[in-house]
Design brief:
single chain; alpha/beta; 2-enoyl-CoA Hydratase, Chain A, domain 1; 11 helices; about 50% helix; about 15% strand
C-alpha cells in the first residue's frame, strides 16, 4: 500500500519513511516496490540533493522481509517476492544523490541491506544490527554478501553471517558500518543536519561523480581506477557549477548550484 511508504520533501531533501511500525517496518513486497519506484523517480530529479531513509516508530528501522508473506510461497515465488527489495537496494547504490540511513531500533536482514547500500548511516544507541538469514537456512540474498565485507573486512563479515549475532550501535561505529551516533530520538534530526551540510559543501554533479568513483573504483586495480577517475573528473571542468564554485569562492559567497 502506498501509505506504507511516507514521502516528505523539503528544500531539496527527500525523507522516505518505511511506515509499518506495528510490523516493525517489515518489508512487504508492496512496500519494497513503492520504495524502488520512488527511488527511480528521484534519480531523474535535479532538484533533489539528498535522500534520507528511516523507519517509523521507535522499535525498528526495519526487521527485513515480511516472512508472513513468504509462508506458503513456492521457492520461485519467494525469490520473486524479494526481487523488489534487491532492485531498491540497487537504486540506492546507484542513485546520483547521497543517501543517508537514519536508524533506531532493530535493523535486520533486508532492512540492514537497505542501510548498507546507503552512503552514510546515522544510528541511535538503541540500534541493533544482525543478519538473521542464517537462522532461517539461508544467507543475505541481496547485495549484503558483496558490500558488507567491503565495509568491515572479510573476517568480521563472516562472523556476523555465520553466527547471526546482534551488534549494537557503538560497536557498529567501531567496526565502520555506522558513521555517526545520535542521541535518543535524534537520528532523523541528525540526518537532516548532515544533509544540509552536504548541500552546503558540495555541488550536485561533483557529489554524484564522487559517489560513482568511490562505489565503482574502490575495488578496481589502481590503473583501472585512475582511468575511471579521469573520465568522471575531467567533464566537471566544463560545467556551469564548476565555474560558479570558483566565482563564489572569489566573491566570498555561497555558490548557487544548478546541477549543470
Amino acid at each position: 500500500m502506498a501509505d506504507h511508504l511516507l514521502v516528505d520533501e523539503h528544500d531539496g531533501v527527500v525523507i522516505l519513511t518505511l511506515n509499518r511500525p506495528d510490523n516493525l517496518n517489515a518489508l512487504s513486497q508492496s512496500l519494497a516496490e513503492a520504495l524502488e519506484q520512488d527511488l527511480r523517480k528521484i534519480a531523474a530529479r535535479r532538484d533533489v540533493r539528498v535522500v534520507i531513509i528511516t523507519g517509523a516508530g521507535e522499535r525498528a528501522f526495519s526487521v527485513g522481509m515480511d516472512l508472513k508473506e513468504r509462508q506458503h510461497l513456492t521457492p520461485a515465488e519467494k525469490w520473486q517476492q524479494s526481487e523488489p527489495l534487491r532492485r531498491a537496494c540497487d537504486q540506492i547504490w546507484n542513485l546520483p544523490q547521497p543517501v543517508i540511513a537514519a536508524i533506531r531500533g532493530w535493523c535486520l536482514g533486508g532492512g540492514f541491506e537497505i542501510a548498507i547500500n546507503c552512503d552514510l548511516r546515522v544510528a541511535e544507541a538503541s540500534a541493533a544490527f544482525a543478519w538473521p538469514e542464517m537462522q532461517l537456512g539461508a544467507f543475505p540474498g541481496g547485495s549484503a554478501a558483496v558490500i558488507f565485507p567491503r565495509l568491515v573486512g572479510r573476517s568480521f563479515a563472516k562472523q556476523m553471517f555465520f553466527t547471526a549475532r546482534r551488534v549494537k550501535a557503538e560497536e557498529a561505529l567501531q567496526r565502520g558500518f555506522v558513521d555517526f551516533l545520535a542521541d535518543k530520538g535524534t537520528a532523523l534530526d541528525y540526518a537532516v543536519a548532515l544533509a544540509a551540510e552536504i548541500k552546503r559543501n558540495s555541488s550536485p554533479l561533483g557529489c554524484a561523480a564522487a559517489k560513482q568513483m568511490v562505489n565503482g573504483g574502490s575495488d578496481m586495480a589502481v590503473s583501472e581506477a585512475l582511468v575511471l577517475n579521469r573520465a568522471l573528473r575531467a567533464p566537471l571542468d566544463a560545467t556551469h557549477d564548476y565555474e560558479e564554485g570558483i566565482r563564489a569562492f572569489f566573491e566570498k559567497r555561497p555558490p548557487v548550484w544548478r546541477g549543470e
